Amino acid sequence: MLLSRQLQGFSLTTAEILYRLPDHNSILQSYVWQDYDQAPEFPVLEGFLDFWRREIEGPLHSVTVTTQRLISPGDLRNVRFERFH
């Protein structure tokens, strides 16, 4: 399943989320999120951030995203194999 997702354009995505503590707005806390997502729209991360905004009291300060494609279409190729006698 992981290979098929990678071929569909999913890549390992890491986001550092800085948010403010609800009771101490001047203090920032860091949260690291990681999942397979599709750049540049990042629908999985956007879904998580929507959940955060609805359900978690700590207001978001900033989100830094990095992604790395593990397999790209150029990494796969058909190889013809002939056996010589």
Top keywords for this entry?
three-stranded antiparallel sheet; alpha+beta; elongated; 85 residues
Can you characterise this structure?
With 85 residues, the chain is α+β, with helices and mostly antiparallel strands. It has two helices and three strands, in the order αββαβ. It has helices spanning 2-7, 43-55; strands at 10-20, 28-38, 60-68. A three-stranded antiparallel sheet has the order 2-1-3. It is elongated. The two termini are 38 Å apart.
Largest sheet: 3 strands, antiparallel
Q: Can you tell me the number of structural domains?
A: 1
Number of strands: 3
Element pattern in H and E: HEEHE
Low-pLDDT residue spans: none
Provide the β-strand percentage band.
35-45%
Structural class, judged by helices and strands?
alpha+beta
Compose a concise summary of this entry.
By secondary structure, the protein is α+β, with helices and mostly antiparallel strands. The protein has helices spanning 2-7, 43-55; strands spanning 10-20, 28-38, 60-68. It contains two helices and three strands, in the order H-E-E-H-E.
Explain the layout of strands and helices.
Elements: H1 2-7, E1 10-20, E2 28-38, H2 43-55, E3 60-68
